[in-house]
């Protein structure tokens, strides 16, 4: 396996150093601004200069005013903010197909945690590269990683491919039989926090501002009170968020009551963790009184409907996400992982968020396509404390832009009528034509510009085989192959 520190010939191309001197005009499409008024600009255009959006308006006006700019024709397309995946484990691209249809506790103990704790930096790097490539191909421009054990390799992959992201380490300091973690990967609270401060000092703001480093808490069952308080204090000192799995399912609630004498949300409340910089993910086992508490504290929520439906967390059937939104909470969308969601297409995740809760509530007006799109753009950015710069197309914001082709039959007969609903209900990430991050194209006309896909496929296949060997994961064929 080629070490991740050495990019072998042809495996990748560095990002262009500069954008054209006179800027870029993406013109003639329908611009979905996601500004406060949620305005759509028909026959619209976006002017990009450097890494920022310089203007938004009618195509004829911006083209006439910027004759020297590079012209990108978006006729028949939606021009939208880049999608924000608020919860994803990048390395798990390599374990795709090995976690299917397995009971949750057994999956954690015999597949997920052995993978996390036994792979090396090389596997983490190539898994992350595979995840980020699939994300970009489906229009995602920003991710949030709740932590593996080689965050530097995830950061290296993000820097190389050109994506934006929030990264932490898997932070845990006590043993949990259901989530086996070797002593060597844990440490004392002081050691863990010191390591996170080093990671922050070395990488926060890196890759021209595309990388941010947060604190994290992997699980409520494997973090001591001392570690929780140390993470809380470090996040406040550094001015960053805390990314945590919380209230995942009834099993976790029962375990937490036995071990800590409190439900997961209440335990973290007592420890002073819950606040505007806390991103609580999954939350399918939170009750209505906890929703009221969390709303009052401005806690951010990560909703992963596809992961819940594959893994049977209960977030759709028992979760209170419509109530969270009605209470004014910020709820972003996450794919969780390529192995856990089984796809990294946020348009498909939007569809599930828009539709699944309708069925549970017998209410066709709950959630819906436009709310789901908000969750994958401006609300996702707000969940990551980054909405001042990304999540909408507005003058002065960073140019993270997704261009979606609307010519497919699934968009007809009215492709431009309620196009956001057309995207969520009828289309998928396969309709994404081009993706720009920080003012530079990382995919154009369906071609990734910072790596060679054939070589990525070969590298991830080799790394996946290495991961299976290192972790001792079972490779089960459900039906006989002859």
Quick tags:
single chain; alpha/beta; TIM Barrel; Urease, subunit C, domain 1; five-stranded parallel β-sheet; 482 residues; disordered N terminus; 2 domains
Q: Please, what is the CATH homologous superfamily of the largest domain?
A: Metal-dependent hydrolases
Helical segment count: 17
In the CATH hierarchy, the architecture of the largest domain is Alpha-Beta Barrel
CA-CA gap between termini: 31 Å
Task: Please count the beta strands (DSSP E, at least 2 residues each).
Answer: 18
Helix content: 25-40%
What is the beta-strand fraction? 15-25%
Radius of gyration: 22 Å
Short description:
It is built from 17 helices and 18 strands. The protein is an alpha/beta fold and 482 residues long.
General description of the model:
The chain is of the alpha/beta class and 482 residues long. The strands form 3 sheets. Strands 1, 2, 3, 4, 5, 15, 16, 17 and 18 form a 9-stranded mixed sheet that branches. Strands 10-11-12-13-14 form a 5-stranded parallel sheet. It contains 17 helices and 18 strands. Residues 1-11 have low confidence and may be disordered.
SSE arrangement:
Blueprint: E1 24-32, E2 40-49, E3 52-58, H1 59-65, E4 70-73, E5 77-81, E6 83-85, H2 104-118, H3 121-137, E7 140-148, H4 151-161, E8 164-169, H5 189-203, H6 206-209, E9 211-213, E10 215-217, H7 225-238, E11 242-246, H8 250-260, H9 264-270, E12 278-282, H10 288-296, E13 300-303, H11 305-311, H12 321-326, E14 331-333, H13 346-361, H14 369-375, H15 378-383, E15 401-405, H16 419-426, E16 432-437, E17 440-444, E18 447-448, H17 453-471
Helix pairs in contact: 2-17, 3-4, 3-17, 5-7, 13-14, 14-16
